[in-house]
Amino acid sequence: MKDDILLTPGPTPLPPQVREALGRQIIHHRTSQYRALFKRVVQGLQGIFQTTTPVFCLTSSGTGAMEAAVVNLLSPGDEAIVVLGGKFAERWQQLCKAYGITVVPVPVAYGDAADPQQVAQALRAHPKAKAVFATLCETSTGVVHDLRGLAAITREGPAVLVVDAISGLLADACKTDEWGVDVVVTGSQKGLMLPPGLAFISVSDRAWTLVEQAKTPRFYTDLRLYKKSMTDDDTPFTSAVSLVIALEEALKRVQQDGLSHVLERCALMAQATRAGVSAMGLPLFAKRPSNGVTAVTVPTGVDGKQLIKVMYDTSRVMVAGGQGEMAGKIFRFAHMGYIGASDILAGLTALESALRACGGAPAGDGVAAAKAVFSQAPEAVAQKV
Amino acid sequence: MKDDILLTPGPTPLPPQVREALGRQIIHHRTSQYRALFKRVVQGLQGIFQTTTPVFCLTSSGTGAMEAAVVNLLSPGDEAIVVLGGKFAERWQQLCKAYGITVVPVPVAYGDAADPQQVAQALRAHPKAKAVFATLCETSTGVVHDLRGLAAITREGPAVLVVDAISGLLADACKTDEWGVDVVVTGSQKGLMLPPGLAFISVSDRAWTLVEQAKTPRFYTDLRLYKKSMTDDDTPFTSAVSLVIALEEALKRVQQDGLSHVLERCALMAQATRAGVSAMGLPLFAKRPSNGVTAVTVPTGVDGKQLIKVMYDTSRVMVAGGQGEMAGKIFRFAHMGYIGASDILAGLTALESALRACGGAPAGDGVAAAKAVFSQAPEAVAQKV
Predict the structure, then answer these.
(1) Cβ separation of A10 and B238 shorter than 8 Å?
(2) Rounded distance, CA B192 to CA A10, Å?
(3) Rounded mean pLDDT of chain A?
(4) What's the pLDDT tens digit per position in A120-178?
(5) CATH 3.40.640.10 residue window(s) in chain A
(6) What pTM value is reported for the model?
């Protein structure tokens, strides 16, 4: 049976080298062999995070590393600014509330990107806020926020900028050190082309000062323990060894390809997808669309849940529906990670026929529009395996 | 190159079905296919936990689930009894202290098992203690505690019994419901024959009352969220999908073999190992030895660290050294999970020759002694693959 064509914003398809590594016999983690591998992996992560600060590796889903950011930076009663605009931004809010942090919300409508001036205003109104929590790509709406702009504003004062780049990293630009992003969080199952199970967090020197001061109780996610272990190229608690070994293979792919080429290819996949759905007459939901995932508004008269079911049932192409209040109103067509032009074309083909089957009328030829994009950039389409 | 022979108390070797499952292409987790699989997996876990209460599945190392127990059951200022006796028992203590729980330690010397009467005394002296934290197999000393006895004592009062069965489950008996163990924690990389990355926790009805009352802040490990998601055969945060799929294969092996047969085989491996090291004249460190891991005292005049290095360098057999203050004084020869008679014999052969190389003099033929044990139970040796 042919594999599904997974165009979901995580998990994303696994390249062959990753699958081979996952299937290897296990090795022990308290060995010089594993420590050397772990060291290489951390250096590779620093490369894709574009930072020279430590990147810590947690055995958890992305939310575990988001929690690590909150509990390591803040103390109960602290104020934090949370940039909203989607389900995952709201997770920052939930996390802060769970740990007794006073949240200053920066409201952003679903589909909109935050205006950095809103954050500037919030910082002026709340000069004691210790952190700004934001999102690179809001997976639930397909919006990429202006991280560079948010960082520039935040760096004017003492607050640190903490970014959920779980679905953003390796899809949208994230120049951690250059832009001055203090804390970046990501997960393994998006641009990194791995199964879920690992999460990563980088911490700038100025954010580390907060880690030393924070009073929120913590243990499994206590980054002080991770920093101490890292001096021995180790983790305080048993790593997900197989995933770390596979991570090295994924990082090798990115390194061989080159980070800029990976980002260009992802941008091209996004451009072709946007051209395709636009040609079919389907509106893009995100005002500032991410290169990792394209959110598409379901046209009136079409049942959005049925649409994605038909795509899967007839073509084995899986896109994601809307979450929460967006269910049925949008669908999300992802193109991050191990996705090539053929996947995009298969996805658009499936969409076109499912749209017809669900009573929609494609305005034009989406597949042709995507092909036209690809034909203009044959170099960027190439995927080294 | 031949694989290492891993006789370490986690990670343990992966059976072929598990490796095959790990190497499969990823599937999406928000699908009916995955929910059905997740449901089967939870039922399988209930079988090996020997409980009808829910078993929650966390993406974390075992420590993550230990933390889940502490933060979900207790509030800052609560009293808890912690049965000591090794590095992992001390982790309960560290966790409790990190979350502001007042610890009543029950001291147990390394190598000794706790006397349930000590716990009875502690409970009498501290009638407000809400929980007793204990360990099934103390991985650092090879001791299996009298869980049945500890449960019988604890069940006389209102405190709940919480047990770290991370290296104990599927090696030593753990009759959760029958004995009245309220909370059992385990990890994936021990008797379950998986890579590290998943942790599991069962919660009795009476312990759930505490979960509803506990005031310790929590989010990623908040079992209320896990319980809610479980009504949809789902998890609140993305599961480590590949590991869950491989878990189903591991559970199938246990089910086909039969839990009692798995435990018998593990007991036989332990018996042969103990017979082997004893025949060589090496003292067992644990007064009440676990069936999962045999801790052996390094004889005077032999460098314990060198001994395990020589075993690995000459035979690719990896046993674990002592941890913390036990480093160099003991080594730990594990036999839980996917370990057969040939592994035990290879381990003892390597030990015998490394002992000689390190200036020790084996008193007798350890391999012959182990073989004699195996020859008496050919049925139990069989490992269905």
Answers:
(1) yes
(2) 27
(3) 96
(4) 999 999 999 999 999 999 999 999 999 999 999 999 999 999 999 999 999 999 999 99
(5) 16-256
(6) 0.97
Query: Strands B79-83, A317-321: parallel, antiparallel or unpaired by DSSP?
Result: unpaired
Beta strands in B145-231 (DSSP E): 160-164, 183-187, 198-203
Q: Where in chain A is the domain with CATH 3.90.1150.10?
A: 5-9+258-381
The domain defined by A5-9+258-381 carries CATH number 3.90.1150.10: yes
Please choose, from the candidates B289, B323, B291, the residue with its C-alpha nearest in 3D space to the C-alpha of residue B304.
B323
Distance in Å, alpha carbon of A78 to nearest chain B alpha carbon: 15
Dihedral sign (CA A304, A357, A312, A168) = negative
Q: Chain A: nearest CA to B319, how far in angstroms? A: 10
Q: Could you give the 3-state DSSP secondary structure of residue B42?
A: helix
Residues 6+ apart with CB under 8 A from B287: B111, B112, B113, B143
The phi and psi torsions of B43 (rounded to 5 degrees) equal -65, -40
Q: Residue A108 is encoded by which pair of tokens?
A: 């952003």
Token digits of residue B252: 């199938």
Q: Is A87 helix (H, G, I), strand (E, B) or coil?
A: helix
Residue B364 has what DSSP assignment?
S
Q: Write the residue in A28, A29, A95 that is nearest to B219 by C-beta.
A: A95
Beta-bridge partner residues of B294: B333
Chain B interface, mutation test: which of A220, A226, A229, A309, most B Cβ atoms within 10 Å?
Answer: A220
Between B304-315 and B341-357, two packed helices, what is the crossing angle to 10 degrees?
A: 120
ipTM of the complex: 0.97
Chain B CB contacts of A12 under 8 Å are: 26
The A residues from 299 to 338 touching B (CB cutoff 8 Å) are: 318, 320
Q: Is A16-256 assigned to CATH 3.40.640.10? A: yes
Mutate to test the interface with A, among B238, B239, B336 (most CBs of A within 10 A): B238
Segment B340-345 shows an average pLDDT of 96
Q: What share of chain B is helix, strand, coil (3-state, %, to 5)?
A: 45, 15, 40
Closest CA to A60 of B97, B63, B223: B63
Task: Name the residue among B23, B29, B318 with its Cβ closest to that of A28.
Answer: B318
- Residues B102-137 pLDDT 10s: 999 999 999 999 999 999 999 999 999 999 999 999
Q: Other C-beta atoms within 10 Å of B235: how many?
A: 20
Q: Which long-range contacts (CB under 8 A, 24 or more apart) does B371-379 make?
A: B371/B272, B371/B345, B372/B275, B373/B268, B373/B271, B373/B272, B373/B275, B374/B268, B374/B272, B374/B341, B374/B344, B377/B268
In whole angstroms, what is the distance from residue B174 CA to residue B77 CA? 30
